[in-house]
Amino acid sequence: MSGKASIVIGFTPFHLLPMLEVLQAMEGDAYFFHPSADDPRVGADGRCPVFLGKCNDPHRRRIEKYFRAGRDIDGIAKQYGEVDVYVPHPFNPLSNRAFFHPRASGRFIYQDGLLNYYDALSPLSSFMPRARQIAKAAAAGLPYRAYVGHLSGVDSRTVSGGFFTHPDRIVRADRFPILRQLHFGRGNAGSRPAADGGTLFLDQPIEEVVDAEVARELRRRTLDYVNRLGGSVHYKPHYSQKDARCFDAAWRPVGREFGALPAEWVAPKLGVANVVSFFTSALANIAMSSDAVACHATAAHVVPISIDGRQASLAELLSGFGVKTVDLLPPRRR
To answer: How far apart are CA 286 and CA 321, in angstroms?
Structure first.
């Protein structure tokens, strides 16, 4: 065994943003896994990685990509003297395999939305979440190691470094010997003026966070809020909302092509003046990358969090990134 390899793994549309920057910082031979690795931006800047599990083949099933990628990781571990791993967290079955692999030399964490900015704890100490993840991993032929502490994995293994847009604001900062800043193409997205003064609405499955009655009220009031902004409205569901429908018949779905892209890429393509959602981290990323777009969060006040042990809400966190937080619910309805 000789030489060095670096493996970067992601799985949501958002992950493509930090992965493309992390790819440029990786040492040795570069290996890349993302279910949407066929996106033309991957390798467009000159460094074309080897795709794990043939993940750049759009005709392969997701589970087949995971199965093959797991075998590829084992092969890389045997072939190279050093193997660095870059993941957003080890909760996903494939990133779990890579992060806890016995031959991993260095473990690096890159930003996953707002996850790294508050005390997001792993749910794997509870039986059902643990059983679900173990079952998902088994279906792809992968072992799975449960872990506790912060969901990013920094409490479960020594990490070599991290990549974040705001390294000075992350929690568990003392766990990272090296911190590097991500930019997400900052400055480019904001160079386009708003085309029609319209709005991009980013849906989320808020029913998983608040009870059904509160969720209905938030959706109703958010619809009214968006329509009061004026102009056309583009509707983009969260990638997990397979059967989502527009709130309003006058809103325009973004379509399959834009639906598969991170919202951070879609907003500048549409040239909107506003981006509205309940509390998605995309609001923070867009607000940071463009002065020409106003980002609005309509439900962040109802989500309590803690930041290094201090009680707070998502509203406080998002507003610190330049997002306008709108409290649509009277206290009695929360």
So the answer is: 10
The boundaries of every CATH 3.40.50.720 domain in the chain are: 189-333
For every residue of the chain, which 3-state class applies, written as one string? CCCEEEEEECCCCCCHHHHHHHHHHCCCEEEEECCCCCCCCCCCCCCCCEEHHHCCCCCCCHHHHHHHHHHHHHHHHHHCCEEEEEECCCCCHHHHHHHCCCCCCEEEEECCCCHHHCCCECCCCCHHHHHHHHHHHHHCCCCCCCCCCECCCCCCCCCCEEEECCHHHCCCHHHCCCEEECCCCCCCHHHCCCCCCCEEEECCCHHHCCCHHHHHHHHHHHHHHHHHCCCCEEEECCCCCCCCCCCCCCCEECHHHHHCCCHHHHHHHHCCCEEEECCCCHHHHHHHHCCCCEEEECCHHHCEEEECCEEEEHHHHHHCCCCEECCCCCHHHC
Domain formed by 189-333, architecture: 3-Layer(aba) Sandwich (3.40)
Q: How many residues does the chain have?
A: 334
pLDDT per residue over 269-298, tens digit each?
Answer: 899 999 999 999 999 988 877 788 999 999
176, 159 Cβ separation under 8 angstroms: yes
> What does the pLDDT look like over 125-178, one tens digit per residue?
999 999 999 999 999 999 999 999 999 999 999 999 999 999 999 999 999 999
User: What fold, for 4-181?
Assistant: Rossmann fold (3.40.50)
Tell the residue number behind the tokens 């032929």, with chain if given: 141
State the Cα angle at 258 between 23 and 30, rounded to 5°: 15
Decide: residue 267, CB within 10 A, 0-12 exposed, 13-18 middle, 19+ buried.
Answer: buried
Q: How many CA atoms are closer than 13 Å to the CA of 63, on its beta-carbon side? A: 7
pLDDT at residue 40, rounded to an integer: 59
